[in-house]
């Protein structure tokens, strides 16, 4: 039986794997992806030379999704699970400066950029993220899902809000991030993908009352709808077209997070195929595939993922994730109290 640390490591591996699969397809329309790779990308690919963001990146290279998640994980570990939001803001700014030095176009997203600019101009930290409604908080939230127990959902949402409000302090973004964190946490506690999705919906509902209100479709309701609507499609190609055209794959929190759960609903037992499908949708494929990989890894491990593929991702990015997975699990165990009846996922 896998341990908590095994599942935590698989969540981080899955995050990086999905991110790397979606790296060459990010920000491309689905029609372009199909013409280049077929209906579903099936292996790690280098970014094409004309790519708007990732040109020149080798096959297996990760993007901001993995790098910012690991940045958050490092901050959680160094602060014993109690990070200062200003420290996160400073680390994000330093990360972007480093990306610019590397010549990368994969920089901070619109919500984070706007919030950090507001902070630097003197806006209060509670106000800086009041317009952040994109998926930036959700894409980097996996370490909270590892650290926070699924048996205490209000506390998990509190922890999501604590590390997200500096840039994404809105009902939509907090709902989206809480859904991903809860699903990862449930998987680490032994939940199936279906059970993790149910807890994700509950977390999104709870978080919808947090932060500043912005107009947009309810994230929890859209996750449930997205998971139900894709079951009517007979093939992955039809599912991908439906997700791309109807559910949506943009940076919007109410699109990309339901899209990720829709992919998981179609492949609840196959993390490798789920990541491939997510990376083939079009739009924000690296983020969607990273979230799919994190949840699938937590729930299922890495069954079916070729060892050569995983090693390519680890080697290309010089990733050593075991210490972080263990440290986050230690924080989880140190803060876990006996769950009340009815709180199991």
UniProtKB/TrEMBL annotation:
Cofactor: Mg(2+)
Keyword Metal-binding: yes
Cofactor remark from the record: Binds 2 magnesium ions per subunit.
InterPro entries listed in its UniProt record: ADP-ribosylglycohydrolase (IPR050792), Ribosyl_crysJ1 (IPR005502), Ribosyl_crysJ1_sf (IPR036705)
Residues annotated to bind Mg(2+): 63-65, 284, 286-287
Keywords: Hydrolase, Magnesium, Metal-binding
Superkingdom in the source lineage: Bacteria
Pfam families: ADP_ribosyl_GH
PANTHER family according to UniProt: ADP-RIBOSYLGLYCOHYDROLASE, ADP-RIBOSYLHYDROLASE ARH3
Protein name: ADP-ribosylglycohydrolase
UniProt source species: Sulfobacillus acidophilus
